[in-house]
User: What shape does this take?
Amino acid sequence: MSNLYIVATPIGNLDDITLRAKKILQNVEIIIAENTYNSKKLLKKINSNARIIQYNDHSKKKDIEYILDILNNNDIALITDAGTPGVCDPGALIVKISKKYNHKIIPIPGPSSIVAAFSVSGISSNEFQFIGFLPKKQKARQDKILEIKNSTIPTVMFESPHRFNQTIIDIEKIMPNREIFIAKEITKIFETLIHGNAEKIQSIFSKENIKGEFVIIINGDKKKKNNTTKNNDIEKILKTMKRENISGKVASKIVSENFNISKSSAYKLFLDLP
Assistant: This one.
């Protein structure tokens, strides 16, 4: 069976291509690309003579069958318009079907707008969630933003230029004071990085003729996270004291004095412990 290389390509600055990605794209004869125009510019820069076959959201079942037929006898590289194929990208289906036919799938990692934006956001967290694009319909979009509001970890998403302003308006309605980071056209000539709440973001972009792609990072609910951490700490301490056969009355008094919680609440937690 042949190899299918999942090759990450630059998200803006073509000099960001990795040495390994460059080598693969120079050596394969066939490249599956989401956008042939952008891909040709990259291949010209790295002196690749590979043949490009387009595959995108508008491709049909017969296009996949054609690609699989080629893959039976040739190594193929799969690239997307920018970044890593398969992440919010139609290439995921090619990967899924290729695995079904036992082709070897080889990741060639590289530039990621998600990681690049988070690295310069200044938002401190050991974890975050990535949700791709918000729903197009307003009700579904607002429902998703409400979910994000209740999250204790940062949320990273993509947004298109024609929906960006409405998304920020919806965020302002639901969580007006939440910390937001915007990365527009990251690694490109007109890269813009902005920190602030939804009102500030809206004031900056509302008068612009918006172009380009956006990465939006919304910080988690810090207050809720702190409360969750505190409750977990209280529960651990109460469990320890219960194992040590310390009475509920004494345990609740100790916890109340150290965690700004009423003795009655602490005592109820103590009684609810297994």
